[in-house]
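Q: My labmate handed me this sequence with no annotations at all. I'd like to see what the chain might look like in three dimensions before we decide whether it's worth expressing. Could you predict it?
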Amino acid sequence: MREYPDAIMMFAAGFGTRMKHLTQNQPKPMVPVAGRPLIDHALDLAQAVSPARIVANLHYLPDQLDTHLRAQGVETITETPDILDTGGGLRNALPLLGSDPVFTMNSDAIWAGPNPLESLRAAWNPARMDALLMTVPLENTLGHGGEGDFTIATDGRLKRGPGQVYGGVQIIRTDLLAEIEADAFSLNLIWDMMLHRERVFGLSYEGRWCDVGHPGGIALAEGLLAGTHV
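A: Here is what I predict for the chain of 230 residues:
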């Protein structure tokens, strides 16, 4: 078993229903943002940390995304006939990812600031942590509704509550995935088990973050990349 992650799981299987007409003929990760597919912005961050492998799960309109990702050295796994959600998707990809811990990364956000993967790797402490989440203070988010997902203590431990938004990037151990009987399930179930053990930690992001899961997020993200949001 590794103590530090060298594989990245990129979640790319969703239907993109919040994107409305933009995902009628293409999967959400292929929606253009600043002239490039949305997922390529995430891939820039992933490739910068030189992982041994990057794996992406596919489901909705998988062929065009499969072609695009494989050309960039990303391994893909298609979930069929049913989508497996984040927890089930991660478990399904373990044969490609290898032993834990692993990075997981959502593909529908834009980051402006330090590479969140590099920051997480530098802060990861396997003796204390089962998961280390990159969280974003509400005031540093764009395009996000709600009050946040977690509170963060002075020692870095997380609890459910308002204030910090989960940015979609983390390091997580995968052994608890085997304890879930359902095929499709959210990683929230695994977090709850780890939270009970007080082994979920957060790292508060120093830059800006934009949710691009809805059409309005595209212009916000492009403004952020162009430096027009302060």
